[in-house]
Amino acid sequence: QMSSEDSLVDEDLTSVPDLQLDETDYELSTEILIMLFLLMISIFFGHLLHKSGHKYLQEAGLTTVIGMLAGFMLKLTNENYVNKKITTHFINLFMLLLLPPIIFESGYNMNKKSFFKNIGTIMMFSFVGTFIAIIITSFLLYGAGQVMPEEWAPEMGLKPSFAFGSLISATDPVSVLALFKSMEADANLNAYVFGESIFNDAIGVVMYETVKKMGTEGDKSLQQEAFMAVINFSVVFGGSLFIGIGTALFVAFITKKMATKTKQQ
Length: 265
Hints:
single chain; mainly alpha; 10 helices; about 0% strand; sodium transport
């Protein structure tokens, strides 16, 4: 009887499927673990830096240095794994999970009075300033590739140059804003820098997507490509703005109704 029970137990155990992680799940969990570890290190050393009262190195600069060292160590460990695995998956993780809370937190905690008071100047800096920075950066990169030796500046076409210029021109002045806060700078100056940093990320991403679509719809002249780029930029930016405003109004309406019902109860 014992042997029959043992055989039944053995059969039950062998029928249980093995739990195996997919390769993508394993890589993603590893990337999240690395990210959390680096975040703890940044918070710890940032606390020590703030406690010591150091004036020449801000917390954002320290975090940048930690990220550079971590990237260098990962590249020394396995360059192929970093380039093909971690970089690809982390971009998706950053765009879907990390970037939205960063943008929403900035808008939620901003000084709304100073922001809307200077909205015209902020929008001019955001649109015109970022667009000028993209044009200058892209043509400088393209010209450097044409003139300088290849080992110093690899030759790049106009499309890759504009794609890189679109992403690199959207600056995030975290250190400058932290310095303004410690110096108690003028509220209008802080609103200019902060407001421009909110919009330039969106403009840079939309411009990058616009550049990426160029040249994918057959043979077109330069004028047609430029016209389609303007149309794509307007559609993507306007659609995103419309969806964002509509969603915000809908959430505000639902929240207001729920708060009213709670007070009545």
